[in-house]
Amino acid sequence: MTMTDISLATRARWLAVFSVSVGTFTLVTSEMLPVGLLTSIAATLGVSDGTAGLMMSAPGLVAAVCAPVLAFATRGLDRRVTLMGLMALLAVADLAGAFAPNYPVMLAARVLTGVSIGGFWAFAAGLGVRLVPEGAVGRATSIILAGVSVASVLGVPVGTFISSFAGWRTAFAAMGVLALALVALLATTLPPLPGEPRTRASEPSPRATPVRAPQAWLSGPLKVVLVLTVLIVSGHFAAYTYVRPFLEQISHAGPAFVGAALLLYGAAGVAGNFAAGAWAARNPRPVLVVLAVLIALATVALPLIGLPLAVLVVWGLGYGGVGVTLQLWIMRSGGGEMGTALFVGAFNVSIALGSFAGGRVVDGVSLSAVMWVGAALATVSAAVAALSGRAFGDDPRGRSRR
């Protein structure tokens, strides 16, 4: 093989990495879409804001179940084919949401979204080791996971921007078209990625993620990360799912201001993602403590001082780094593909729990009260993360000594 051939092969592998990253961005953006469109969808489909929040709860809960189930059930299938199928399912879900005539149809579409998210995210997170040389696995994994992190903070502003001039249905349709385009892109860029043979699970391929015993998936440090995932993500989404109604009804912001505020939040979140990723590579635990404190401060300040732009920047910086920090912690815990699947499950069930609990608080108490719920859970997250360092004895490189 000539140097030119090697160079072309290397570029092809990195193109595959970026394609998967765009795929994770598309999935999580689709999941986050209702947050910025909540009041518009609720008005069109004739439901309350709290009930409309189920559009976040449903896919989160379904994804939480599907992540470990699909990781186990499809372990013998080519990951290339699996990822293409899940992306095609997302396209169907987004387009069904765009044309939903009523709320039950919309919820059904969101269930399909959850299936796509749970499977694709769980498989994509571990693909770096199969796409690039060993020395570049960390970089490839960061790029793939950046799609999740960036979508978590930019998905809502993107949807809000599109809906501001073309309506919420157009925002869903646009994501459906993008998902269809990605099916073709994945087919073109991904190499064959054979799954693990069902009959010889004890002898995995050297380039495949090994199947591990359940006790390895649930090591002490991994349990801590899963608990922290539930706490901080559910607290965030209890509040953030209803940030648009809060800005409109409590801060009396108009549509243009809401769009600008969410874009500012998104920009701060992207900065937080890359800053936290670089810092957490050395030791993720103290990074998560800082991020949780920032979220707590922002969600307390929002109802108290009424300065949404400044507060949303702090909130974006805090939550923007949560996804990549938790994922790096998971990788250090050594859970393998199933460990990542459990993390994805915990992350998505937390979205469901948070948005559902927040909806009950919004309908039963007030929009301001839901911000206090988010602040309380973020504070508990910071305390648990801080105390976990003593429990598991972090070494200078951030690894557990147990």
TrEMBL record:
TM spans (from-to): 54-74, 81-101, 107-131, 143-165, 171-190, 224-243, 255-275, 287-306, 312-331, 338-357, 369-392
Source taxon at top rank: Bacteria
Listed GO CC annotations: plasma membrane
InterPro entries attached to this UniProt entry: MFS (IPR011701), MFS_dom (IPR020846), MFS_Efflux_Transporters (IPR050189), MFS_trans_sf (IPR036259)
A GO molecular function held by the record: transmembrane transporter activity
Lineage start: Bacteria, Bacillati, Actinomycetota, Actinomycetes, Streptosporangiales
Domain Major facilitator superfamily (MFS) profile: 16-393
Topological type in the membrane: Multi-pass membrane protein
CDD domains for the chain: MFS_NepI_like
Protein localization: Cell membrane
Organism: Sphaerisporangium krabiense
Keywords tagged on the record: Cell membrane, Membrane, Transmembrane, Transmembrane helix
Official protein name in the record: Putative MFS family arabinose efflux permease
